[in-house]
Structure formats: structure tokens, C-alpha cells
Amino acid sequence: MGAQGQASRRAGAPRSTTRATVALRAAAPARRVRAVQDTSANDAAHWKRTTNLMLTHLGIWFFFGYVIHMFVVPLNKITIPILGFPLGFYMAAQGSLAAFVIMLFVFAKQQDRIDREHGVAED
Asked: Which residues span the domain enclosing 99?
């Protein structure tokens, strides 16, 4: 190769293509389509698991926020031995709030695990 050939190669002139390069370029769109399909399936699975987790925690929230308080009168017949408070009063004043705080931490941990399994976790 002469000086002119080396100069044109250094200047960014395209190299000659080989059969392998042509074959790789032809296969690239198929790989991109497969990656998009895999990403779409992964996103759908992630969304389904996230939705199920959210609905489960909403059910638990509804139980502690409303259902427990519907049974205050029967629960008031039970007294907490150490504190001396009726159970219905305790659940209204402290129990439900404690359950909500615990639920927040559990939800965050479970959602983080789901995100890591699907490759969308925050660093």
C-alpha cells in the first residue's frame, strides 16, 4: 500500500467490507427486534408483579384502616394485659399506625427486589 492509501485510511476512509462484516450487519436488525421483544416481555412481567404487590398492600391497608375499626366494640372486650387498654382502642390509636409504617418498609423492600430482578433498580 502506498503513502496515499495509508493517508486515506488515517483520514477515516471506509475499509473494504468482508463477507463476515456484511453477514453481521444483516443479522443486526434481527438481534435488535429480539431485544425489543425481550424488553417488552420483561416490562410486562415487571408491571404485573408491581401491580400485584400494590394490590396486596392496598388490601392489607384496607384491612387495618377500615375492617379492624368495624369490630371496635367486640375488640374492646379484650384488654391488653401490660397496658390495660382495650384492644379496640389500641388498634385505633396505635396498632393501625404501626401496621402502616411496617407496611411501608416491607413494600419498599419487596419493590426493590422486583426492580432488581427485572433490571430496573435504582442505584
From this structure: 45-117
